[in-house]
Structure formats: structure tokens, C-alpha cells
């Protein structure tokens, strides 16, 4: 049980004590919100730690007397429904026109009482928000990449614009999987001056080490130096992978009655992770990937998997400006290895040369499978070298 709580690869961290690194990013976030009064867009790869960061920001903001509302977006997100539910959780007490002794307040009513039925406009919301008193508000929209394009995102952008123009102290923090700001919030030109985009970068080596150290002390099972090095290398900046490796390696150590996690336990963790991921992606994809690796194209496939992992899943095969080596190689690899086997598909107009893997989990699977193969092949040497 202690082990399951020590590393939580399937859940975001919500406790500050379990939160590793990210101090610079937290600093920029807090400064953007508090000092610059900007709305923030956090973007980055899948599993890079966006939701964990949002949880921590929520906690800190609440401690600083912000009213914080966290909403997870989905394909069916609708602006009016979403905003009505947010407004519905704000007690009327915070409205400047109401007195604490008013009967509505004693009845526990909330601000949605003031909304007319039907669709809500940004203007109408701003009128209500502008009357908030004695508090500042943070509305957090997570998984924004899953929200519908078009009306929904346009309405959010419009609300942000109105809030900023009227200096209303309600701020948005938006997060989602993307490789850049504009990809996530399409209506950026109108709100460029009111929004700051912050990328959640891969974790630095020291940050991954800190994540492992937190897990070590929570579980009471230390990792030896080689196990730490190997875990850090495999994680490649992903807190998700570090957490996954940490958990499985610690379980492997416990299962062999050891008191310390060694490199061999990390190797075992990779084995288990590969099997686990294989359960989650279609068999056809697994077979194709395994065949490409068996045919000796593993290195090339690994390269595009890593590019996808580092760019929010996107594979850009046309360089803008002077064609870079990476882009040209990516173009060749996509064409020679992945396209024919139906592993990738174009995003948008095929002419643009931007691709993504058909299966979102494929890049991580490829990366883990190759690590696994490498450990098996030169097993003793790699484990020994760590
Ligand atoms: N700063 C951190 N310290 C410790 N663990 C972390 C940290 N950031 C992320 N993790 C771990 O990494 C995993 C992924 O984190 P999280 O869910 O926050 O990422 P995400 O970017 O929101 O992912 P997704 O794109 O799937 O929504 C979780 O298991 C979490 O426990
Ligand atoms: Mg998330």
C-alpha cells in the first residue's frame, strides 16, 4: 500500500510534499498571475505534469485567498453550461450588492441566480464578475486540447479579452497537450497581450532525481545509484515514466525480498511496463511495431517516437526556414518506416506534412520496447553501466 502511494504513475500529484522540482515554472506562473495579472496557458506533452502543476497552483492560490475553480474539459464542453456551473459555485456573499445578512445569502444561494436562462454571453459574465468583491478568482481549465474547436474556444477567448479590457480580477489558467501556444488557443491574436504561454518542459535530471527521492522516502525503499541513473535515463524527462519505473522497480525489489532497489529491478520494471502498455494499445499496432523493430528499423522508429514525445505528438516533416537536419530526417523516416505501415496519419491537410501516430500511446510504447530490447541484448553491460 505504501508503495502504491509513493509513486503514482496513473494519478496526478496533488500534495505539495509529493511534488518534485518545477520551481522556476511555479515562480513564473505565480508572477504572471499575481504581478502581471495575465491569463496563463500551460502547454506540453502528454504526461509531462500539467495537471499536477495545476493542483499545486490551486492549493497555493487558495492559501492566498483566491477563489479557485478547476474544470476538466471534454469533447462535449459547452461554454454556457461550463460557465454556469462555475458561477453556480460562487456564493452570493462575494457579490458587492449583497449584504451578509440578506436572506438570499443565508439561504446559501450562489451567483448563478443572477444569470438569465439560456446561452450566456461573455459580456453578461463580465457584468457579474465585475461585481465580485473581497476576493480574486482563478478559473482553471484543464485538458483544453480535448475541448471542441470553434465556438467553445472562441467564447473563452472572448471572455478573456473582456475580463482583461475591464481589469476584472478573474483569471484563467488553461492547460492542455500541445507543442505551442497557438495550437491550443486558436484565437490568440485577439488576446495576445493578455495571455502568457508557458511551456511545461521535460524534467531536468535533478528534478527526476528529486521525484525518485520523494518516492524513496515515502516507500521506505531506497534506490542504489545505478538504479537512480537508469530510471532517470529511461524517463527521459517524463515524470510519468519516472513514476511508472519507480513504482514497478520498487515492487520488483520487494518481491525478491530486497531492501534496496537495484538496476536489475529497473530492468524488470521495463519488462512489466512493456507488457502493460501492450494491453492498452491495439494488437495490430503492437504487431506492426514489433515487426518493424525485428526488421532492423528500430533505431529509426525510435527517433520519430522521441520526436513525437517531445512535440506533443506532432511529427513535423517540413521545416519552415532553413530545413533542419532533424526535420529532413523525420520526413525520411516517416515516409520509409511509418507511413506504409499505417502507423502515422497526417494532421489536417496532408500537404502540410505534419503527422501524428494513429495510436497516442505508440511513441511511449516504442520507446519502452526499444529500451527493453536494448536491456535484453546487452543486458549485463547496460545494467552494469547503468
Ligand atoms: N512535479 C512532479 N512531481 C512528482 N510527480 C509528478 C510531477 N509531475 C508529474 N508527476 C507524475 O507524472 C504523472 C503525469 O503527471 P500529470 O498527470 O500531472 O501530467 P499531465 O501533463 O497532466 O498528463 P496528461 O497530458 O495525460 O493530462 C503522474 O503520475 C504524476 O504523479
Ligand atoms: Mg492532465
Describe this entry's structure for a reader.
- The chain has 386 residues and is α/β, with parallel strands linked by helices.
- It has 3 domains: 22-199, P-loop containing nucleotide triphosphate hydrolases (Rossmann fold, 3-Layer(aba) Sandwich); 205-279, Helicase, Ruva Protein, domain 3 (Orthogonal Bundle); 283-368, Arc Repressor Mutant, subunit A, CATH 1.10.10.
- It has helices at residues 2-6, 23-34, 50-63, 79-87, 103-106, 122-129, 151-165, 181-184, 188-191, 205-219, 225-235, 239-255, 263-280, 283-310, 325-339, 362-377, 379-385, and strands spanning 39-44, 66-72, 136-142, 170-177, 195-199, 314-316, 344-346, 354-357.
- The strands form 2 sheets. The chain has a 5-stranded parallel beta sheet with strand order 2-3-4-1-5, covered by helices on one side. A 3-stranded antiparallel beta sheet has the order 6-8-7.
- Helix 7 links the parallel strand 3 and strand 4.
- Helix 6 (122-129) packs parallel to helix 7 and helix 11 runs antiparallel to helix 12 (239-255).
- 38% of the residues are buried.
- Magnesium ion binds at residues 50-51, 142.
